[in-house]
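Worked Example 4.2. Read the sequence first, then its structure tokens.
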Amino acid sequence: MSVEESGTMPPVTAFMLVKTTPEWLALTVEERVAAFATQVVPAVKAKTTGVRSRFYDTEFYSARVTDVWVWEAEDHHAYQLLIDALRETPFWDRYFEVVDLLVGTENGYARTYGVEAVTTIAT
């Protein structure tokens, strides 16, 4: 059964481009880990289900964006709850400036047109 036949939406992927703030950089590494573990993670876990993330450091390649946080949500509602949860923590605009959000579904064109996802390449 395809995703469309099952009546469920494909997962949502969000690329959250962020830049560290002076307040975040003034913290020691230990303080950063503690702040994230006590202020951000509990809020996300308490207010969301069906989301997972990966975090990428990019500051050595970009001056505009220091990190990219990739979120996958099982649906649009789960993604909205995630953003609401993050906005209620110091992560949002205090520790990090959210530079941009790029949200999409993987190979959406292939599902729309019923074709093979030729742009997904593995060598």
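Now turn to a second chain, presented in exactly the same format:
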Amino acid sequence: MREAAELAQPVPVEVVPARRGAPRHCGWCGRRLPEGGNVGRRRRYCGQSCRQRAYERRTALQRSGLPEDAVVLSDTEVAALQDRLFQLRCAAEDIVTAADDGADLRELRGLAAEVARAAKDLEQLR
């Protein structure tokens, strides 16, 4: 009974403000947004087409009853995401194997660059 009461208690959450000067990204496609002035609202989307796609997604979610933070992917998008995750895992395993085999620093640096590239590709979900 005590555990249920403890779980029902709200947990204080520390709100961390966004860093000044940190790059902002499009709310739809994830591209980096250009730095704007200090006047008006901050941009959320890189262009009108991304803004429209985000609107269409929001209205479709409202009609379907899915939660606001739901992510809906097609079978093709899921397969592509799984392929990119597999590439990232293989690249990381290559680094471990190379380190175990006594690879030199230059080779390890090249393999690490490949992991970084694969991880960057994964950031783009759409």
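Notes for the reader: The CA atoms of residues 20 and 39 lie 15 Å apart. The first helix runs from residue 2 to 8.
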